[in-house]
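quick one, two chains, predict together pls
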Amino acid sequence: MPNVLMVAEKPSLAASLANILSNGKSSSRKGFNGACSIHEWTGSFRNQPAKFKFTSVCGHINGLDFTGKYNSWDRCDPCDLFGAPTEKKEATPKLKMPAFLSSEARGCEYLVLWLDCDKEGENICFEVMDAVSDQIRNIRSPSVTYRARFSAITDKDIKHAMNNLVQPNENEARSVDARQELDLRVGCAFTRFQTKFFQGKYGDLDSSLISFGPCQTPTLGFCVQRHDEIQQFKPESFWYVQVTIEPELKLDWQRVRIFEKEIAMIFYNIVKDQREAVVEQVTSKDSFKSRPLALNTVELMRCASAGLGIGPHTAMQIAEKLYTQGYISYPRTETTTYPANFDLRGVLKQFERSSDYGEDARNILNDFVTPRKGTDCGDHPPITPMKLAHSSDFDSDTRRLYDFIVRHFMGTLSRDLKYKSTTTTFNINGETFTATSNVLIDAGYTKVMTWQAFGKNELATLFQVGDRVKMKEVKLIESQTGPPSYLTESDLISLMEKHGIGTDASIPVHINNITQRNYVTIESGRKLKPTTLGIVLVHGYQKIDPELVLPTMRSAVEKQLNLIAHGTADFRAVTKHAIEIFRLKFLYFVKNIANMDSLFEVSFSSLAESGKAHSRCGKCRRYMKYIQQKPARLHCSHCDETYVLPIGGIARVYRELKCPLDDFELLAWSSGNKGRSFPFCPYCYNNPPFNDMSRASGCNNCTHPTCQHSLISLGVSSCIECEKGVLVLDCTSSPKNWKLGCNSCDCIINIFDDAVKVSVEEDTCECGSQLMTAVYKQEKTPFPDGITEKKGCVFCSSEFAPLIEKHKAVENRRLNSSRGRGRGRGRSHRGRPKVPKDKMSQLAAYFV
DNA sequence: GCAAGGTC
């Protein structure tokens, strides 16, 4: 019997598709990666009996990244990224997706791809084929691999797809490859360039990363555009005639308002001395407010933000949780219409006995209305409740979001809100005024969606044509137009959706990004207010190349990519062309960065004027400034050079000692009390002097043969906790505290408390460690017979044992040492490197 | 330390 492997885009879909195709007769087991399940049954394939295996991936198997040095910010020019080699890497290594798929494909003859029917899904099809090609022969053959095309997760649609299998569309898949490549190259090049440029110049930038992206930047652009409208807004005065009649009712003027005072005065004079208003016309009409469409992701995010004050990122996290706990259906969908066979009543019935929703649910069941027809995007059914929850099941936000989903669902099955609108027209000496009265006829869906309830404004009196109504007061009122408010998050989501910026799944990510990067802040009412940094960036792009921030940029790129998807253009040609355009844009941006910089200059303070004098520069001997804001840096304003410092912790001046190589004053970095610490030279830290010393190294990694702070002078033994580290004597807080610190991991061993001097000797113990000497004052010596100085091994000498803090770890090492010794000595990077005989020739070889 | 797109 042939074996057929079928793969869906996510575990939940594999389960429901298997259930449909097996008529509920599949058996399930968990896959070895812990995330995916396999559903198996026997059925028929191409008119013969076959064994089916249905499993899934978790989205993309691979992601795109640069190779080797192109991932380093320091080892390549951002401009090189437009031509740098790239490679596919496992998107989530811990899922072991390729290995999992390959293992499940063993023994299978056929592959049927049930990935989502969009371009990303088509791309994942080829990722899956690639992953199983070592198990299934001729994977590219149209009689081996099939593609199921389905537009709804219904019995009928899925079985129809199974009976009408087609082939995966390579063009669509390639268009996604092109998008990935373009986004990677453009995003990383711009991000690295502008981050380095501005961080190297300004001390008070409140962002450790100044990112650029084809989605996040236009998203920020929307927020800044509104900010600009507010800034440019000029209030205008206007006037209107306000008539109050008896009984107390203010009428609406047909001219609404007039922007010239003199003209407004003319109308005021016409009306002001009148005593009566004559009713000219009374018209009534029935009006409706539509019940909502079934709920999709974007609408859920909009409502959560605008109605519940829950941001889209959080809203989706909560929805995800509600989904995995079985309270709601799958929360990521664009579809706003219920499938034909959806058991709407069945869902409602679950709420019949609820104290919160019972009465409404029963009313709706008794007066069932067919829901409105929305759009079927062929992905997932709309978001609906799946089972009744008790309010004690959830925290406050979860409860509110669940309540919204339940009420929205019931709202879609309710009647429209119906009301009667009556407009009365008054004539006052030739000027027309009106009064409108709305009378509720049927609250409809607002009975459940109470926040949309109808604000009544029924008139106390009903008028008839010909009535003469007594006027109480006439006023000429002056007012001013007001500026628009900042963009609400809900407005922003709508704008992104309209311009095709991001997808339902990535919209919250982009909004989150621009807040995390300090480009916008979220104000009350979830309004997005751009920060100085956000404003300056967008204005800068507008000065240099407005297309970089235009919302149409994304759709223009999509248009190019669609040429690939439709097979009308070659993948290589389109990608090459698009990359070249952005490369030129990048070069132009770099060349004209001064235009953006002039805006930064006004808003931020330069490194030279921020920070405080700290330690001396080795080149000019002047004091450099210490900028503590992240990322911490030293800046020499005379040499106009910036040196980055270790992340976190503090870097203090280390006894005014100097690096023998470059004359820079040494600093002692410390991550905090009892934490890691080491001395370092700020110049060497940024520009490693030796080939075997990597960037961002302290003196404890320096192979200078004679400097008293180097690894050569102070290294004691290989680390007891990690593979490649060396324990180095750390004197930075001596004589208060002596310790051995690993130059690679976090391992710290406190030694020789109260000693006045500790040193590392030239000779070694038989265990391979360097011998050490500890000197104490007479009154504090721990050694017997009043001896104040002793030489020995921190691991082997019995009189040292009580003076070493990390006994347990040390013991472990002892146990290991006999095993590890030979190995350790043989490897040059382990243990303390031997001091070379000819120091000068060794030194010469080290210099780059 | 970078993008955007899937999804866990």
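Chain A has six domains: 3-168, 177-232+484-603, 237-290+418-480, 297-414, 606-704, 714-812.
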